[in-house]
C-alpha cells in the first residue's frame, strides 16, 4: 500500500469483495465470488406454485439462485424461500446417501442398489402377508408435480396401495410462522 | 447489458452457443410440454427480466439539483421480504447480514384494524448523519447520483455512524471489523440495471425515482415522511413512501412499546470514565496547589500528575479496543472539520501530551521551588486542566451530535463534568491520605484541613449528581411514549438491578462513608489503617461511575424505522 493509502484508502480488498461486474449467465451484475461458470434452470421445491429458479453453479456446486427471467410462472421473481432455496444443501442434516437403521440410533450406509433391494424385499413381505393395501405412502410438498404423479402411479398402479397422504397437508411451516406475526396486533 | 431483439435459436431447443450458452442443453426428444411452453414464452419476450423492470427505473440519470431516490408504493408492499432476500443474495452478503428490512405499522381499531408493511434500506439523505459523524471520511455523497457511498476499506470500525444514523441503517460486520450498508446497487444503476430489491419485488412496490433536492426539503417542512419514523428534518431522507389510502391517525410501529436495553459499548464506558478521572485528577491537583500553595505540598505535587497521566494513557489505549480495526486508529484525525469524534481524539491527544510534560516536569522537580522545571510544571498543569475540561466537553458533544433525547448537549455535558469533578475529588483525597506519612510535619495540618474540604465536596457533588441522573425518572409520569419516558422505563424495568447497585455504590462511597469521616474522628483513630476506608470510598465511587456510564449507553433508546413484531 502506498504511504498515502495508509491515511485514505478509497478502495481495497473489502471494496473488491462487493464490486459487481457484468455476468453473461445471470444477465446482470454480480460480485466476483458469486459469478457462476454454469447455470441450470430448475423448479423450486417449496410450494406448489413451481417457480423456475436459475441455479448458479461453480465447479458443479450450487452457490446461489435467482429467478428464471423468461419463465411465465414467476417472470424472474422469487419469494424469500425461493431465494434461499439452495441453503438446504448446506444443512448438516441433509440426507446424501441411503441409510438403514440397524439399532435404536445406529445407521448402516447402503448403496442405492442395496437400498432398493431391501425396500422391495420388505414391502413385498408385508404385502404378501397382509395384502397390498396394508401399506400406504406419505409424500411431501418438496416434489414437483411430475414427481408426485410418478409417485401416485408407482404406489397405486404399480404396488397396489390404496392410501396416500402428504406432509403438505399438515406442514404450513412458513405460513404458521408468518401469519401470526403478520396479523397479531 | 442486453438490448431487446437479440435473436434466440428458432428451433426451440436450448443452444450451447449464443445467448443461451452455459444453459445445460436438453435433447428435443426429452422435452416436456412445459419446456415447449417456456421456449414459446422466451421467444415472445426476448428482453427477459430487463423488460419487466424498465418502468421501475428513471428514463434518464439525475441532473443538477437532482438525485436518485427509492420510492416505495405502500399499497403494493405485502411484507414478503423478497427484497431482503434478493439484496442478500445478489450482493453476496454474509450470514445474518441485511441491508434492507421490512417492518410493520399497525393501527385502526377493532372494527377496522389496519396493517401496513414497510420496506426500508438506506435513505441516501440530503444531510447524511453518517457522513458528518464519520471521523475518517469513509462516507461520500456522490455529487451526480446523490447516493451515499461507504468506503469499506477506509472504515476502521468505530461504529459512530451506527449511533448517528436516525434510521439505524449502517450495520457493523464484526468479523470484518467494518460497517457496511446499502449503496442503491450503484454499479447496477449505472448500467441501467435495476437494484436487487427493485428487480425482486413481485409487486413492483420498489422503484427508483429522480427527485428534486429542493422538493425533498420542502416536503419536510410539513414533517411528513412515514408514521412512526424519526423526524425527517434531522437528515432529510430522500425515500418516498406513497399511498393512495389515508392512514388511521393511530398508526404506530409494531415494536413501538417494545423496550430493549441498547449495547453497552464497554470500551467506551471505560474510556469515558478513565479520561474523566484523568482530567479530574489533574484539575484537582491544580486546585489544591492553588489553595494551599506549593510549599505545603511535599511530594504531593507529583502524585496527581503521575496518576493523571497513567490513567489517561490507559483510557486512550482502551478506546482503541472499540475499533473494529484498531491498527488504523491514526486515521481518526481526518474528520476534524465535521466529526466530534475526531475533535475528541485530537483534544485528548493534546491533553495527554500536556499531562506527559506536566508529569515529567513535576517528577523531576520534586519539591524544589524555582527553576525551569517548576515553571513548566505549572504552565502545563494549568493548560492541561483547561484542555482537559474542553476535551470532556468534546466527549459530551460526540453524543449530543446524535440528537438522541437522553444524550442532549447540556444534559450530557453536565453529566460528564460532574463525573470529572467527582472522580477528581475522590482521587485527590485518596492521594492526600496516601501521601501523608511521607509529608513533612508543617504540611500535615494543611492536609488534614484539605481532607475535610474534599470530603464535604464529595458529598455535595455526589448528591447533585445522583439527583441529576435520577431526575430522568420524572418522565415516567408523561402520558405519551417519549424517548425519555422509555429510558426511564428501562431504568426502573430491565436495568433496575444495575441502577440499584449504582446508587448503592454512590451512596456508600460518596455520602455515608465521607459523612461518617466528617462527623467522627474515624480516620484519626484508625491511624495507619486510615487508607482502608478511603480506598473503599475510591472503589465504590469509581464502580458507581462505571455503572452510571453503562446506564448512559444501555438506557438510550435506539431510533429506527418501524420494526417487526417482537418475537
Give your account of this protein's structure.
The complex is a heterodimer of chains A (185) and B (567). Helices cover 34% and strands 22% of the residues of chain A. Chain A is elongated and about 85 Å long. Chain A is α+β, with helices and mostly antiparallel strands and 185 residues long. Chain B is elongated. The two termini of chain B are 42 Å apart. At the A-B interface, helix 2, strand 2, strand 3, strand 5 and helix 7 of A face helix 1, helix 2 and helix 3 of B.
Short structural description:
Chain A contains 7 helices and 9 strands, in the order ααβββββαββαβαβαα. Chain A is an alpha+beta fold. Chain A starts with a helix and ends with a helix.
H/E order of the elements of chain A? HHEEEEEHEEHEHEHH
Low-pLDDT parts of chain A are none
Q: Multimeric state of these chains?
A: heterodimer
Number of strands of chain A: 9
The major pleated sheet of chain A works out as:
3 strands, antiparallel
Number of helices of chain A: 7
Give the CA-based shape of chain A.
Answer: elongated
Gap from first CA to last CA of chain A: 55 Å
Q: Order of strands in the sheet with the most strands of chain A?
A: 3-4-5
Q: Rg of chain B to the nearest angstrom?
A: 31 Å
Helix content estimate of chain A? 25-40%
- Percent range for helical residues of chain B? 40-55%
The average pLDDT of chain A is 87
Main beta sheet of chain B, described?
3 strands, mixed
SSE string of chain B: HHEHEEHEEHEEHHEHEEHHHHHHHHHH
Total helices of chain B: the number is 18
Percentage of residues in DSSP E strands of chain A:
15-25%
What's the helix and strand layout?
The complex is a heterodimer of chains A (185) and B (567).
Chain A (H helix, E strand, L loop, with lengths): L2 H5 L5 H6 L1 E4 L4 E4 L6 E6 L8 E7 L2 E7 L12 H4 L15 E3 L5 E3 L2 H19 L6 E3 L5 H14 L5 E3 H4 L2 H11 L2
Parallel strand pairs in A: 8-9
Antiparallel strand pairs in A: 1-2, 3-4, 4-5, 6-7
Chain B lengths: L32 H12 L3 H6 L12 E8 L8 H9 L10 E8 L4 E8 L8 H5 L5 E3 L6 E3 L9 H5 L6 E3 L4 E3 L5 H5 L5 H5 L5 E7 H7 L20 E3 L9 E2 L12 H27 L9 H19 L19 H26 L6 H29 L8 H27 L5 H30 L12 H10 L3 H24 L2 H5 L4 H24 L13
Parallel strand pairs in B: 1-9
Antiparallel strand pairs in B: 1-8, 2-3, 2-10, 4-5, 6-7
Helix pairs in contact in B: 9-10, 9-12, 9-13, 9-18, 10-11, 11-12, 12-13, 13-14, 13-18, 14-16, 16-18
